[in-house]
Specification:
about 120 residues, mainly alpha, three-stranded antiparallel beta sheet, 5 helices
């Protein structure tokens, strides 16, 4: 019995993720957001109160090296800063800069509109 790979859930999830990423990439480019998809997703997870770097790793299913690289780029763009955690000196808290807060407020409507459009018909 042959299986049609194109009808499997895994294949369709892969295609859906690819199409969504391409659409988000186009949306970010049109908005002149100056962020990659990965930077955008990580950046939008940082709240006003900050977030621990380890929580970003867990949430995004990325290793420490990838998260560090993404954060380096966001720090370079003056959107986030790293602060030492009050709980553990070995842990860092990622917080928004003033520029980062303004950028997030600018991008929230874009994210909401994109999410609504992506969910149409589901």
């Amino acid at each position: 019995m042959a299986i049609n790979v194109e009808q499997t859930l895994g294949f369709n999830l892969h295609i859906s993720a690819f199409v969504l990423k391409q659409a988000l990439k186009t949306t970010l480019k049109k908005a002149e957001a100056d962020l990659t998809i990965e930077e955008f997703v990580l950046f939008m997870l940082v709240s006003d109160g900050g977030i621990e770097q380890a929580d970003l790793q867990t949430t995004l299913y990325k290793d420490k090296t990838n998260i560090t690289h993404l954060l380096d780029r966001l720090v370079e763009k003056d959107l986030v800063i790293r602060q030492m955690s009050h709980v553990s000196r070995r842990q860092q808290v990622i917080a928004l800069t003033k520029k980062g807060k303004a950028k997030q407020q600018e991008l929230i409507p874009l994210l909401q509109a994109f999410s609504q459009q992506a969910a149409q018909g589901i």
